[in-house]
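User: quick one, sequence for these tokens?
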């Protein structure tokens, strides 16, 4: 058996050689007292070390996405990153198992714990992961938690994707990050169409004996509505995400009503029916026919390490216009005063141009189906 020091060195090399920009190792005891979503006992009770690694998103693609110059390139970038994360996970897992250690590669995304009332993927609203990558990354020294509640790194801000590996191998932990890169600009609170992040209230938790604080988040059903693409229009009506769809606004303040609304909308969405409701991120990213239809995620991708860049990103979004669905089934951005909302058979309304709203009876259902077919169900 190789020494743990050599194994640790090999782990770092595997991650960096296969596309990771950041990699760190944390000890199991650093997670004592942390939120339950990062308790490794849920997946691997013998865990003694946690391995975390990160890949940054393409910045030109982000800015084209925020400014609505290009929609699908951002999803393609995310898909490639997930492929890399899984390959790194597989390689590290193979190395450790080959040395006789119990090891568990954590799913990169889209796998959540069962919850009361969440009898299937469509009904789940809490979305508690098997193991939280962002908390793990803090424990492994990759970064801090920004006001947006996402990992923020000194090198890339929050615009990174993460993966984790749990193992019974006991390795020396890497140093924790000593300085919080988040300067509390709170730009993240201004770029969400459903007001997910509070600009004033906070929550706190403990990792490695340290207290971390970030902005309090509203009920997760709001995130499912915003990032799920069911509502894209900012409350001021001047800009939207890449979603042309609209739910009633303002959203219900009562959580019971909010949960019922998101479940109703998801159940009516053909992209979340049948086999698709059970797909993991691994299923999706290695399917060559799968197209990622991202509409938001603004609170994460807007946050770069320099405040000047965050302000630029915010300005690009605020000046990007409002997304509409065209009769060809495409999504394009137009000025807010050129938009009208019409009813669909999917619970949501859809934004179209003023001119095309006059003939929606002739083309809307076909356009909605064309938009849906961007997603493969093979």
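Assistant:
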């Amino acid at each position: 058996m190789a020494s743990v020091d050599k194994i640790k060195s090999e782990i770092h090399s595997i991650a960096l050689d296969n596309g990771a920009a950041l990699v760190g190792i944390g000890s199991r005891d650093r997670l004592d007292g942390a939120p339950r979503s990062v308790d490794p006992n849920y997946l691997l009770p013998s865990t003694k070390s946690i391995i975390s690694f990160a890949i940054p998103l393409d910045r030109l693609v982000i800015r084209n996405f925020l400014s609505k110059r290009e929609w699908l390139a951002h999803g393609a970038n995310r898909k490639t990153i997930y492929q890399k994360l899984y390959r790194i996970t597989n390689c590290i897992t193979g190395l450790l198992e080959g040395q006789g250690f119990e090891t568990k590669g954590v799913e990169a995304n889209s796998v959540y714990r069962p919850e009361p009332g969440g009898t299937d993927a469509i009904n789940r609203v809490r979305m508690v992961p098997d193991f939280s990558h962002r908390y793990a990354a803090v424990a492994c020294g990759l970064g801090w938690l920004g006001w947006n509640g996402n990992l923020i790194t000194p090198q890339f801000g929050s615009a990174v994707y993460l993966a984790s590996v749990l193992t019974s191998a006991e390795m020396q932990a890497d140093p924790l990050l000593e300085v919080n890169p988040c300067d509390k600009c709170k730009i993240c609170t201004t770029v969400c169409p459903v007001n997910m992040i509070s600009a004033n209230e906070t929550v706190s938790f403990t990792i490695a004996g340290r207290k971390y604080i970030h902005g309090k988040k509203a009920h997760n059903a709001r995130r499912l509505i915003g990032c799920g693409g069911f509502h894209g229009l900012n409350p001021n009506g001047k800009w939207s995400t890449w979603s042309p769809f609209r739910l009633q606004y303002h959203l219900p303040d009562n959580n019971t009503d909010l949960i019922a609304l998101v479940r109703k909308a998801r159940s009516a969405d053909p992209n979340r029916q049948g086999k698709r409701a059970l797909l993991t991120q691994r299923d999706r990213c290695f399917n060559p026919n799968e197209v990622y239809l991202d509409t938001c995620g603004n609170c994460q991708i807007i946050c770069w390490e320099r405040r000047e860049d965050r302000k630029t990103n915010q300005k690009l979004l605020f000046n990007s216009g409002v997304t509409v669905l065209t009769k060809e089934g495409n999504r394009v951005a137009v000025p807010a005063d050129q938009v009208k909302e019409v009813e669909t058979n999917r619970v949501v309304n859809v934004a179209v141009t003023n001119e095309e709203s006059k003939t929606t009876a002739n083309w809307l259902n076909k356009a909605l189906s064309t938009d849906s077919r961007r997603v493969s169900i093979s």
